[in-house]
Amino acid sequence: MEKIIVLDFGGQYNQLIARRVREMGVYCEILRYDAPVESWVDAELRGIILTGGPNSVYDQGAPGLDVNIARFGVPVLGICYGMQLINRLMGGSVKHARISEYGHTSLKTKGGALFEGIEAETVVFMNHTDFIDAAPEGFSIDAVTDNCPVAAFSNEKNMLYGVQFHPEVRHTVEGEKMLRNFVFGVCRCAGNYRARDQIQSMLDEIRRQVKDGRVVAGLSGGVDSSVACVLADRALKKGQLKCVFVDHGLLRNDEARQVMNTYRDNLGLDIVHIDASERFLEALKGVVDPERKRKIIGELFVRVFEEEARKIDAQYLLQGTIYPDRIESGMGGSATIKSHHNVGGLPKDSLFDAEHIVEPLKSLFKDEVRIIGQALGIPRDMVWRQPFPGPGLAVRCIGELTRERLDMLRNCDKIFREELQKSSLYENIWQSFAVMTNVKTVGVMGDGRTYTNCVALRAVESDDAMTVEASEIPYPVLKSACARIIAEVPGVNRVVYDITSKPPGTIEWE
Ligand code: XMP
Fold this sequence. Notes:
By secondary structure, the chain is α/β, with parallel strands linked by helices. It is about 30% helix and about 25% strand.
């Protein structure tokens, strides 16, 4: 299968590069910049992309390449730091600007294969301090900005290309077209990779790894764990896979029933439903600190899950780890953003070692997992569910978690969802939910004074949860959600809407 390799120099947008290329129908993998060349240069390689990164190419110990960049035999595109690296390796010079160029910038294009069909003046996203003041010999300057005399260059003979800006982010208006020009025009890819064509090889791989063994899986109802379980169910024989659905009492309204109904009753998976809500609420009694809540929930979850695994004497653990989980956990050259629960997050005394972890989705992006989920017959509304945090409503219920407060929150959340669905907004929102604040406010209802809870509503737009904007929900929808919540949920007398973006906020309140 033809492929493009992205060499990761630690840039923040590296995942997006690989996602964009795969969306074009070309298989793409991200590797650390220093991955041994023999491990990835083969007959299928069609092109290489060098990413941005936080360093200056002149820093001591700055990441580099110890191969002759002009001799890969396939085209190389350098983005930001990647371009400066090409420049340095080919003898050009890089200068340090007094002020960084950041944000939307007007680019004037002059020609070159990357800019076929691109406007003479187009908006791009810049994020750099170093800049190239003179291109190396043999390179033509393909674009400039007011502050950047070499914003793009190319050397067609050696198949080297560079852009100082970030074509992979949506702010670069014609960025996708530029990447297409590289992938199809320069690298001559055919574009016949489809995520759903991977299903057969994933089934074969599960069978090869597990053989006649027994597998246990945690099924949360989220898209990743669900698709992993349905795949394993298809791959293995009856009795080999047991799915465990741990209900920690922090789920949304009707969630447990929906999950059991979809996966056990309709798709025929072997699932045990463990109602551990009493145990969780007992362990969380009196706890208000958000990090302590997370820790208690995480630990108890593993314990309950392992008790179930022991009961069936499973040798393998199936996990819904996806590609970004591994990248974010520091698999590439990028800084570790968060240590993902699925990656290296198992306790030291875990029942399962690395060889006994089955991760069929580990090379896929979320959108690809969804495509596979649909191809496997998982209903659309389950495949397109909004992400839901592992600690569930615990991080949306500020202060102490009691059954009464959680029930109130569940009802508010349900009403907000119904109002968004009624106006056909729900499917296009990244996440939407209610938050039980720990603020009580004075109100007047009927002829009497009330002094009850204030609930916040939150809805956000995002591509990847790393940055978000608050959704601009039409005012009438917010008003009817507010009116219904106060009328239908005793104990709530005020509703506010959270308009904070991320950064500086986060999606969840805790
Ligand atoms: P924040 O609140 O950090 O959330 O902007 C980013 C995304 O991650 C989800 N989230 C979590 N998921 N365990 C999870 O499995 C957690 O502890 C957790 N905290 C946040 C959140 O819902 C959003 O999609």
